[in-house]
Amino acid sequence: MDIRLQGVSKIFPPDIRALEDVYLSIPQGEFVYLVGTTGSGKTTLLRLISREAQITRGQIYAGSYNLKKIPTLSLAIYRRDIGVVFQDFKLLPDLTVMENVAFVLEVIGVPPREISERVGEVLERVGMWRRRFLRPPQLSGGEQQRVAIARAVINSPAVLLADEPTGNLDTRTAEDIMQLLLSINASGSTVIMATHNKYLVDAYRQRVVELRAGRIVRDEKRGRYDVDGDF
Amino acid sequence: MGTFRYALRDAFRLLGRHWGLALLTLVTATAVFFLVGGSALLVVNTSRLVARVEGELVIHAFLKSDKNMEALREKVRQYPGVAEVREVTPAEAMDRLKKSIQNQAQALEILGENPLPPSLEIRVERAQDVPGVARDLLTLSSVDDVVYPGALASRLARVSRVVVEFSLVILIIAVTASALVLFNTIRIAVYSKKEEISVMLLVGATPSFVAMPFVLQGMILGVAGAAGALGLLGGAYRALVGGVETSVPFLEMVKDPDLLARLGLILVGVGMTVGWVSSWLAVDRFIRRALRPI
Q1: What is the SS3 assignment for B4?
Q2: What is the helix (H) or strand (E) element at residue B46, kind and residue range?
Q3: Which residues, listed in sequence order, are joined to residue A211 by a DSSP beta bridge?
Q4: Strand runs (DSSP E) across chain B, as ranges?
Q5: In what order do the strands lie in the sheet with B119-124?
Q6: CA pair distance A37, A51, nearest whole angstrom
Q7: CA distance B196 to chain A (A)
Q8: How crowded is residue B82: how many other Cβ atoms within 10 Å of its Cβ?
Q9: Could you tell me which residue, A114 or A109, shows the higher pLDDT?
Q10: Closest by Cβ to A72, choosing from B196, B199, B291
Q11: Is A76–B202 a contact, with Cβ atoms under 8 angstroms apart?
């Protein structure tokens, strides 16, 4: 699923310009870092792609979908092809690791036998099989992020959107999560990752798109972090 | 089928998570549907009683002569609200009079010729038809006089109307109250699962899939409330019928099992519908808001 943003602007009321005239094309299977200072528009860009936010001007195409005009039912179908990972994980605290991951397949009507097979596979892949009966509050931050990634990729999405997935994690755990994201990318999914992690961006060189005040100021293949004014 | 099983499991999870609230809703719904069922039984019994009395309401039209009685009977039969018309000859009227006065019947012999006029006995369909039919009869030239139970008829019509109106008010209040209680219960359940719903929508659940457990929860509570009310009402009504049969034997209450079963089914149907509509309203608004992009 290729993603194309054409002249996209997002203005929050009263007049907060989160994105301004953004043109961006991401072919299927690419790994893209979104970098930039806080408030530069990284999260807004991800939210526009997941259609949690609506664009003010311009167009976004994701595969055959025009996200500006997508109807409710098509939106549900589209989102089954998009995995989302958040900095704060957004796991459901009352459910076990297994249930948190299985939940995604249950809500799209996958038969129970297939669910248990696929959940087993994905939990093995993220290294959480042995912790499958625990609940999120019983897990470390890194483990919770692994579960969140498992939940995001269980449906083999075409695109994985990761908003600061290593933001709350120590360097070593962040590196583990990065390896996981790279392996997901290697299996064919596009990964778009918003990050402030200079170390990861420089160590695992991929396409870097830098945003500043809502505009793209750099789009570099195998780029470095190099964000001016970042902490 | 898998989707329905998931929704059903989730509906029971929701009930378990908020069991106190669910119990409170159930008790309220039971009380409210008890009122609904009770007022329905009141209407059915009053209607039966009124119909019985109405069936005994007779208008007597005394005729000037027995000429063309057949034609007159047919004409009156066509009046709106008329159920039955019967000719009473002077001889038949005399026989009835003799039967009614029994021992004093011999006194009638001194009258010599039968002085009683021919008449028509008219039964109406409803009490409220009596005055109109009587008025129409008085306009006929062959009719000498009309005797009818006007006061009783108008009182019966009023009683019947008041009972129906009262029951309707009870019904509206009760259904609104149960809908509000169920709406609030479901809304609380929806808010308690706010996070879960937003994740569900984000991973591709359709709005109807998200709504289904809540709607099922509402329907379960509605049906359970109605079923509880039905159980209580069944017991209370049986006791009431037993009491009335011994203390007021002439007052015949409705015992037709088919009619009572139909009433029970309607009550459960009302419970299910109220649960469905109120929970759908509660969850649909929330989902629309959650789906609206920022």
Answers
A1: helix
A2: helix B19-55
A3: A216
A4: 58-63, 82-88, 119-124, 143-147
A5: B82-88, B119-124, B58-63, B143-147
A6: 23
A7: 7
A8: 19
A9: A114
A10: B291
A11: no
Q: What is the band of A229 on the pLDDT scale with cuts at 50, 70, 90?
A: low
H/E/C letters for each residue in A199-230? Answer: HHHHHCCCEEEEEECCEEEEEECCCCCCCCCC
> For A53, which of B3, B6, B293 is closest by C-beta distance?
B293
What's the pLDDT tens digit per position in A138-160?
A: 998 888 988 998 898 888 889 99
- Confidence band for A5, pLDDT divided at 50, 70 and 90: very high
Q: C-alpha distances in angstroms, A80 versus A50, A106, A108, A110, A144? A: 10, 12, 8, 12, 21
Q: Name which residue leads in pLDDT, A68 or B159.
A: A68
* Least Cα separation, residue A226 to chain B (angstroms): 31
When pLDDT is averaged across residues B63-77 and rounded to a whole number, the result is: 84
Look up the ipTM and state it: 0.80
Residue with tokens 């989302």: A84
A162 burial type by CB count under 10 A (0-12 exposed, 13-18 middle, 19+ buried): buried
Assess A42–B contact: CB distance below 8 Å, yes or no: no
Mean pLDDT computed over every residue of chain B: 84
Quote the pTM value.
0.70
Tell me the residue type at A190.
T
